Amino acid sequence: MHDNRNALGGLSGDCRSTVCISTNRVLDSCRDRDCFEDARVYLTAYGEEVIASATSVRTKYARTLWAYVGLEEVPFNCGFYQIAVRYYIEVTVEACMGIGRSQTVKGLVVLEKDVILYGGEGGVTSFSSGPYNTFCNMGDPGSVTTSDPVAVVETVEPVLLGTRVAQDCCTCGCGCDGLEVPNEVLQGFDGELVSSTGGCKLLVSLGIFSVIRIERPAQLLVSATDYSVPDKECDANCGNESPCDLFRSIAFPSARFKGNTCCESATDTASERGGGCGCGKR
């Protein structure tokens, strides 16, 4: 028992050694740019009245509230999994009600996409200890892990590409009455979202950049260095330094004053759009 205990090495005697860690290993990943054209914006009853009475509308901005990520094994393809992603996006719309009058309403856009990635195979079920996993209490589902991998979706805020109002349109086969939205998402709206298919419909076109990967728990051997105590001392103001002295110690934000850096978060896409500092906003 004593020989097996230190078989993988440790940091007790040597500051540098090889240790075993348990982490998630990325087995497959992909990136994508999806353009969703004429996606319906679900509004409240008041929002639909505002859109119906408006002379013109524009979408000010959009943000992703939540995303459902589903994972299912692909039949007859060992190790491959289908990842279903459903985005719930909040859009803020400004409607012109007349000269000098505008009204702002919020709506919800639901977008879906599928992708297939390799997730490997596993045939074990893992159990872990925890405060609720005791001899007399076995009701903690978080302590049990199946052999399925985990899908992760990363995305930036949607890019607004267009907005329009359509009359008596049906964008999803005239069967949209069964809209399923999590309660956590609905709490951000002032009223119940209307999902009927009659009347005016607000449509938006959105672009989404995403990175999707599939992970599986793994044990890896890595080189590790023993923790060292930092040389830097904690410095607190403690009221001895004036606000102006503290302000003078802050580095001057020169980059904020450069005219070509307002789109730093969209550097990769600005060149493709041929854009400057508009960042694709409409």
Q: How would you briefly describe this protein structure?
A:
The protein has 282 residues and is mainly β. It has one domain (2-227). The protein has helices at 2-5, 45-53, 183-186, 243-248, 267-273, and strands at 16-41, 56-73, 80-98, 101-118, 126-127, 144-145, 150-155, 159-167, 200-225.
Helical percentage: 10-25%
3D shape: extended
Summing up helix and strand content along with how strands pair, one would put the structural category as mainly beta
Rounded to an integer in angstroms, the radius of gyration calculated over CA atoms is: 26 Å
Number of domains: 1
Biggest sheet statistics: 4 strands, antiparallel
Give the end-to-end Cα distance, rounded to a whole number of Å: 68 Å
Ranges where pLDDT stays below 50 over 5 or more residues in a row are: 171-176, 262-282
Please state the average pLDDT score.
78
Number of strands: 9
- Give me the strand/helix succession: HEHEEEEEEEHEHH
Approximately how much beta-strand content do the residues carry? 35-45%
Contiguous helical run count: 5
Sum up the structure in keywords.
disordered C terminus; 4-stranded antiparallel beta sheet; 3-stranded antiparallel beta sheet; 9 strands; extended; single chain; mainly beta; 282 residues
Topology:
Elements: H1 2-5, E1 16-41, H2 45-53, E2 56-73, E3 80-98, E4 101-118, E5 126-127, E6 144-145, E7 150-155, E8 159-167, H3 183-186, E9 200-225, H4 243-248, H5 267-273
Antiparallel strand pairs: 1-9, 2-3, 3-4, 5-6, 7-9, 8-9
